[in-house]
Amino acid sequence: MKRRIFLTLAAAATGVLFNAPVAQAADPVKIGFLVKQPEEPWFQDEWKFAEIAAKEQGFTLVKIGAPSGEKVMSAIDNLSAQKAQGFVICTPDVKLGPGIVAKAKADGLKMMTVDDRLVDGSGKPIASVPHMGISAYNIGKQVGDGLAAEIKKRGWDMKDVGAIDVTYNQLPTAVDRTTGATDALVAAGFPKANVVEAAQAKTDTENAFNAANIALTKNPQFKHWVAYALNDEGVLGAVRAAEGRGFKADNMVGIGIGGSESAMNEFKKPSPTGFYGTVIISPKRHGEETSTLMYDWIKQGKEPPMLTLTTGMLATRDNVGEVREKMGLASK
Ligand code: GLA
Question: What protein family does this chain belong to (predicted)?
Fold first, then answer.
């Protein structure tokens, strides 16, 4: 109880998590980092960079895989029981927003979100929780621009090209990403009617593969394909499905978003596949910077910026090393 009598000025001023304690000088700082899909390389990378922050600042990082609402709720209680002061979370479902906020508040924990922004009962972002995400629509446009440039470079007639748009419309950042890609393609003269939506049930390769297979079966009229999704895993699913139909690197151009191991492994294969490129985003910012911001909040009562949107850079097999270096990811 003693911990609870200390209020942070920032929290009191904004009315957010007003009972969250400020760590006392001697309290060891403990920060949770909850991710929705611990098996996905992007989240492994976020954790890796959060560990770097923990070593640098001298706090304990508690990594928790939380693929369901129940897991999230019990993880928060568990963090509170082990005297953590705050956590960073990529939620398995943005609609859990009000429940997660209430639970953190009841347990006296500071929270910030990463990647996927919580929404309230009417679907609006919960603006009172600090968030770091990607500039989703613009990054989607970079994907669409990259696809359009490659279609033109190959001299394909756009009427013969189908676009597999792997969608996951439950997640606002996913909608923004794929909408950005579609808009950029259409702005470059791509026929909107050739965009085939393929809804995935979960944001992984297997579910994208299943969705893309249906899109391919229903559209035998196209000679070439392009594909995009909210992340690399989604595009890989589409690329694998296309391979199964005989559309290999010379007739398939997929561009993902992420730049983690799934994409890197693809680029390391001896010959090119239909996975042409990825817009590399920064697990360093999303892992190291978020947990450092949380640490400063706990230690100094300095609330993180309410909204930070990070950028990305398109990379292909040819320039991936250079792009990773530019993004400060080379030594990972
Ligand atoms: C979402 C996706 C992840 C990754 C992050 C990046 O959470 O599901 O694959 O792209 O966004 O912010």
Answer: Belongs to the bacterial solute-binding protein 2 family.
